[in-house]
């Protein structure tokens, strides 16, 4: 290939690359879908974070674009990321499920609060697209969290017509989970994951207090089964 043609080809490729790398403008509007306005979320219940995004253009939100989102549990300086699975053309909208969350409200009473979501192109405004007008990129709903109890609180279960009282703490837990009872005698503990698979077991000797080493467990939600002299009781806990 002659030098002039080669140079022209290089310049053409460079120009194409520059055009592809340019930041696109997409003015978006956000509507919080879940948790919905007035939602009451049970203790340790999982719920979805989903939002409707309207792209007011003038460009397309493309598959693979990163959405940076913020919710009450995420500091403003630490946005989480969501990778867009489908494109959203100008003047189109899409409802996306961004994450699955868990209610671990540790207060002793119901907690009613404003749950908000905010979505930006990037914390520094230098992502593949940019929303210059941030007026409509935030929405919120008022929801109520049911209490999980401070450090796990006291659980009460009706087993075989009898009320069983026990305390599981701390919750969430990192290394050791403790179970204390009043009148019950604990014969053993077992932990199952969300699929029902037993991942840990420990035998007791009719005691009122038992510890369970959970350091080896991956982070997540688990079920604790408590074998007592009055029957089987259960509780949920979060491994940090």
Key descriptive features of the protein:
Immunoglobulin-like, five-stranded mixed sheet, 52% strand, 1 helix, mainly beta, 2 domains, four-stranded mixed sheet, 17 strands, elongated, 240 residues
The CATH superfamily name of the largest domain is Immunoglobulins
Q: Can you tell me the CATH class of the largest domain?
A: Mainly Beta
Radius of gyration: 26 Å
What structural class do the secondary elements suggest? mainly beta
Number of strands: 17
The strand line-up of the biggest sheet is: 2-9-7-4-5
Nearest-integer average pLDDT: 81
Low-confidence stretches: 7-20, 150-154
Q: How many domain units?
A: 2
CATH architecture of the largest domain: Sandwich
- Classify the beta-strand content into a percent band: over 45%
Distance between the termini: 62 Å
What characterizes the major β-sheet? 5 strands, mixed
Give the ordered list of helices and strands: HEEEEEEEEEEEEEEEEE
CATH fold name of the largest domain, please?
Answer: Immunoglobulin-like
Oligomerization category of the chains in this entry:
single chain
Give the overall form: elongated
């Amino acid at each position: 290939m002659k030098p002039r043609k080669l140079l022209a080809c290089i310049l053409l490729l460079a120009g194409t690359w520059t055009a592809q790398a340019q930041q696109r403008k997409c003015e978006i509007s956000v509507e919080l879908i879940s948790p919905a306005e007035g939602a009451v979320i049970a203790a340790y219940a999982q719920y979805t974070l989903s939002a409707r995004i309207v792209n007011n253009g003038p460009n397309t939100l493309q598959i693979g674009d990163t959405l940076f989102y913020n919710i009450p549990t995420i500091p403003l300086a630490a946005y989480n990321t969501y990778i867009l699975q489908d494109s959203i053309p100008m003047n189109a909208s899409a409802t996306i499920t961004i994450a699955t969350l868990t209610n671990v409200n540790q207060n002793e009473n119901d907690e009613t609060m404003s749950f908000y979501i905010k979505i930006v192109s990037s914390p520094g405004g230098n992502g593949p697209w940019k929303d210059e007008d941030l007026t409509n990129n935030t929405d919120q709903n008022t929801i109520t969290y049911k209490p999980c109890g401070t450090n796990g609180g006291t659980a009460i279960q009706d087993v075989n017509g009898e009320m069983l009282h026990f305390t599981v703490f701390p919750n969430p837990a990192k290394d050791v989970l403790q179970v204390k009872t009043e009148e019950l005698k604990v014969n053993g503990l077992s932990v199952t994951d969300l699929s029902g698979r037993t991942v840990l077991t420990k035998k007791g000797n009719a005691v009122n207090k038992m510890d369970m080493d959970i350091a080896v467990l991956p982070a997540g939600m688990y079920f604790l089964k408590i074998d007592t002299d009055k029957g089987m009781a259960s509780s949920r806990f979060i491994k940090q």
